[in-house]
Amino acid sequence: MRHLLSAGDLSLAEITSILNIAEEMHTIQGRPIKKLPTLRGRTVINMFFEDSTRTRTSFEMAGKWMSADTINVTGKGSSTSKGESLRDTMLTLDAMGTDCFVIRHGSSGAVAQAAGWVKAHVVNAGDGTHEHPTQALLDAFAMRRHFRSAEGGQSRTMEPGDNGFEGKTIAIVGDLLHSRVVRSNVLLQRTLGSKVILVAPPTLLPTGVEQWGCEVTSDFDAALEASDIVMMLRVQRERMQGGFFPTAREYTELYGLTPERLARLRPGAAICHPGPMNRGLEISSEAADAANSLILDQVTAGVSVRMSVLYHLLGGSPE
Ligand code: ASP
Ligand code: CP
After folding, report:
1. Atom of ligand 2 nearest to the CA of 58
2. Which atom of ligand 1 is nearest to the CA of 180?
3. How far is the CA of 184 from the centre of ligand 1 (A)?
4. Which CATH number applies to 7-130+300-314?
5. Partner of 66 for a Cys bridge, out of 39, 44, 72, 180, CB 3.0 to 4.6 A?
6. In whole angstroms, how large is the CA radius of gyration of the chain?
7. What would the mean pLDDT of 264-271 be, rounded to a whole number?
8. Cα–Cα distance between 222 and 7 in angstroms, integer?
9. Which architecture, in CATH terms, is 133-299?
C-alpha cells in the first residue's frame, strides 16, 4: 500500500489485514507501557489545515507508540500563513526526509493532489466534504467488536470471506451533504458487504446519492427499526451558508436520536457517532451515553486502527 487516500481504494483483503493488525495493536492500549519499536527511525508529519481533536491526537499517539518521530504542522503556525503554497510546503517537508504525511485539508481532493507531489506515503485524514478513510476503518473495527460480543463470541481476527458484516444493516443519519465520514463509510461497507440505509432531509442529500448503491430515505423511524447500527452524523454548521432546515427543534424531531427513538432501537443494536457531537441536536445525551453507544469505543479504536494503517504503509514487523 503506497497511500491511503480513499476507502474505495481498499480491497477486502487489505481491509481485513488492517482490522486484524489493529486487533493486535488494541492489546497494547491496555498495557501500562505502550511502546513498540516497529517504526523506530521513521518520521511522520501530521499536517492539519483544519481543526481536529480525535484524528490528530490518535495519529500522533499511534506514531509515538510505535516509536516513530511524529511532528505536527498546522496552517496557522507554518509558512502557509505567509502565502507559501501547499505544493511548496509539501516539497519542503518531503525534502527533509519525511516518511509519511497525515494530512487534513479543507478542500476536497487536496490530499490526493499532495500525494502526487511527494516521495513519502500520504494518509488522508479528511479532505473537505470528500473522504475520511481512517474514520470508516475505525468505525468498522468498533462495529465488528460489537457484533462479536453481541453474538457472545470473543473478538478475533477475521477472514476476508467471514468478516461479520454480511447480513448487517447500518443506518447513517443526518448531514450527509457535508460529511466525508458518510462517503468513506459507504465505500468501505460496500466492500465489507453490509447494507447501508442513508437517512437525511432532502436538503442535506448530496447530488448523485442515488448512485451510491444505498437505500435513501427521509423516514428515520422506519430505518431505525431495520438497523443493527445507527450512525449519527454531526450537523456541520461551519460548512453551511444559509438554512438547510427550518429550526433546530424540527431537525431534532425528525432526524435526532432522541430518548424516544433510543427506546425503539432493535435489541442488540448499537449507536455510533464520529464526533464531535452536537448534544441535543442530532443526538440526545441519553443516546450518546447509553450502554449500547459505541462512541468512546470508536475513539479507542482510532488509535489501534491508525497504528495498523501506519504499520501497513511504513512496514516493520509488529512485535
Ligand atoms: N470529525 C469528523 C470529520 O472531521 C466528523 C465531523 O467533523 O463531524 O469529518
Ligand atoms: N471524528 C473526527 O475526525 O474527529 P476530529 O475532527 O476531532 O478529528
Report:
1. 8
2. 9
3. 12
4. 3.40.50.1370
5. 39
6. 19
7. 97
8. 28
9. 3-Layer(aba) Sandwich (3.40)
Q: Whole-angstrom Cα distance, residue 148 to residue 125?
A: 28
Question: How far is the C-alpha of 76 from the C-alpha of 119, rounded, in Å?
Answer: 25
Q: Which atom of ligand 2 is nearest to the CA of 51?
A: 6
- Mean pLDDT, to the nearest integer, of 38-67? 97
Residues across the chain: 319
Q: Is the CB of 129 under 6 A from ligand 2?
A: no
Domain ranges of the chain: 7-130+300-314, 133-299
Whether residue 213 has pLDDT greater than 70: yes
User: Is residue 298 a contact partner of residue 54, using CB atoms and an 8 Å limit?
Assistant: no
Average of pLDDT values for 8-18?
97
What's the confidence (pLDDT) of residue 315? 86
- Is the omega angle on the peptide bond into residue 32 within 30 degrees of 0, that is, cis? no
Measured from the alpha carbon of residue 108, the closest ligand is 1
> pLDDT by residue (tens digit) across 66-120?
999 999 999 888 999 999 999 999 999 999 999 999 999 999 999 999 999 999 9
Average pLDDT over residues 127-139: 98
- Cα(59) to ligand 1 centroid in Å equals 15
Distance 283 CA to ligand 2 centre (A): 17
Percent of the chain with pLDDT over 70: 96
Which of the four pLDDT bands, split at 50, 70 and 90, describes residue 176? very high
Asked whether the beta carbons of 83 and 57 are under 8 A apart, the reply is: no
